[in-house]
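Minutes, project check-in
Item: structure for the 559-residue chain
Input as provided by the requester:
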Amino acid sequence: MKLSFRDLINRLDNLSELAYPPMIGESSGAQTSYNRDSIYNESTGEYENWDENRDGEGFIRKEGDGFVVFEADGPGVIWRVWSANPQMGHIKIFLDGSKKPIIDTPFEHFFSRFQAGESTANLPDSDWYQYVNFPNLVYTLSRGRNRFLPIPYNRSCKIIFDRDWGRYFHFTYTTFPKDTDLPLFDGVYDREASKDLAQLDYRLYNRGRPKEESSISENDYITKIIAPGETVTFADIKGNRAITETSVYDIHSLTTESLRELAISIYWDGERSPSVWSPLGDFFGTAPGINYYRSLPVGMTEGKFYSRWFMPFSSQACINITNDGVESREVTLGVRHEALGQNADTLLRFHCKWHRDQLLEIPKNEGRTIDWPMLITKGSGRFCGVHLHIWNVWEEPEKDATRWWYGGRADDKSVTTWWGEGDEKFFVDGEKFPSTFGTGSEDYIGYAWAAIPPFPRFESPFASQPQIEVDAKGHTSVNRFHIADNIPFQKSFEASIERYMPERWGGGDDSNINFTVGNNVCMYDAVAYWYLDRDGKDPYGPLPLSERLGYFDNPDAYS
């Protein structure tokens, strides 16, 4: 397989590519600054120091005065680089065994400047760069720096930081099968590549906006009234086809409660259990209620909710909506679908499931008590993202911090901790130590330092925070989507995130903390998005309304 630089750029927004089964030898992961004290002890089978939280300065090893922070054999591509605090210490990127780095620049400049032109061999350092002007590919989300400019390598990649590089990093990458031929990269984005990146940036800017009508697509718009307790079929599509967009219109009549009372189910090819099941609002990547935002695959605008996940099927797609509330609801659903140019039997099926809390248990005797499962599945497929909803409320403290709610100094806080310190961990094909081990929940999403208010709302193509209060007291809704950086698996996959906050929390030894233990509440639920082969195991089933709605106003109803 030979991939051009344009091919790599186009993978960043190609949703149909996600339905292709992973190739033998294809893998993905993230190399991060996680605390190296966290280990899996092969002798005892236990996970040790699994909840360590000093995640800002980890590295693989030292080489001279530098720190090796990324090392991988090729062929591969680094898709995303993130940091919470890049500074002026240099990042040096060495490709394919070269002794000379293709990039040697202050880490802070790595997120604001890039090499552009035809050749940089004879130019002084001050002349070779231009400022990055791709606002949908290189951006800051609430202090988190994100860079989605592909860096391909054929044989190997090694990245070294100089001293004073900053704190916290993620490098998210894919390794391709050995016979893959990737473009040679010298650190320069030439005229053609720069134009391709600009066109991609335009497409990402237009995410969620109306698409031009296509002669190959069929558009079905259905309005139906769903009585209490009723399940209504909105679409029954026959043929070897793919759904390319699912939308809900006339959204202003939908309430926060109704978006959890209504549940969408999608069945592929006559299956008995749905591959897609979620409360209607959560399916579109945010909760509770209507929160306007636009990401690449899903979003909510003033005109509609939209999902543009690519959903192939061989013979039939059936879309049902169930009303578990006590009032009739009118729903208008739009479905765009088209014929496939290949047999859908060769493609994966789209899955999407909502769940809350420890519905699928992780063995606790291994030291993994802190890990909360976002997805556990078996088979061959690709993990493509998650919407995470947290409800965190507390009694007002008797003593305020001098700066603001979370304070900012360890000895002056009104609240001891917050929900977002937990690291994401992805275990692929039964691996004992995760190939992705993150540095914090907000880092995984793409922002940073989120325990210091104010807490903003933000949106981007691949990550958003559509809902949060300015002091984070109440509902938080975040999502992170893996498109080019999806995680392929051949046998099994587990995505977990550390949960530092129990459902009931409070108290403590700090004299500044004046809570009654148990009167503060932190509760999680999630929607996982993934593709799976037709023989794969999806253990998540529909859940009753009490699991979905009870805690909005009454935490005691959520048990």
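Outcome recorded: Confidence is low (pLDDT under 50) at residues 119-127, 509-517.
No further action items on this chain.
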